[in-house]
Amino acid sequence: MDIVNLSYVKYRRLKLNLSLQDMAESLGFKNASTYMKYEDGTYLFKANHLPTLANKLKCTIRDFFEDTFAELAKK
Q1: Other beta carbons within 10 Å of 42
Q2: d(CA 70, CA 34)
Q3: In a domain, 23, yes or no
Q4: Inter-residue long-range contacts of 4-8, CB under 8 Å, 24+ positions, other chains counted
Q5: DSSP 8-state assignment for residue 75
Q6: Is the dihedral of CA 69, 73, 74, 75 positive or negative?
Q7: How many independent structural domains does the chain possess?
Q8: CA spacing 20 to 30 A to 7: which of 17, 30, 39, 56?
Q9: What is the CATH number of the domain that holds 50?
Q10: How far apart are alpha carbons 41 and 63 in whole angstroms?
């Protein structure tokens, strides 16, 4: 099972100057603290979150896993 690179998600959010609340609303969460639990790894992003997340962060779904693939290739 591949794991979303959470540091990449946070990097993109900050680079695009999006708040935790912006992200929460785009994913249908009630508040920023719920989204923050996903971004910090307390909760795992679900597959159905990824298209919305990619759209909001102006990237591709594959971008969420690039570092994971690079780490596997080194092994």
Answers
A1: 9
A2: 30
A3: yes
A4: 4/44, 4/45, 4/50, 4/64, 4/65, 5/64, 5/65, 5/66, 5/67, 5/68, 6/39, 6/40, 6/41, 7/67, 8/63, 8/64, 8/66, 8/67
A5: -
A6: positive
A7: 1
A8: 30
A9: 1.10.260.40
A10: 17
Which amino acid appears at position 29 of this protein?
F
CA angle 21, 35, 11 (to 5 degrees): 80
- Quote the pTM value: 0.85
How would you class 57 by CB atoms within 10 Å of its CB: exposed for 0-12, middle for 13-18, buried for 19 or more? Answer: buried
Distance between CA atoms of residues 58 and 22, nearest Å: 14
- Give the pair of three-digit tokens for residue 49: 């979150």
Q: What is the pLDDT of residues 4-31, one digit of tens each?
A: 999 999 999 999 999 999 999 999 999 9
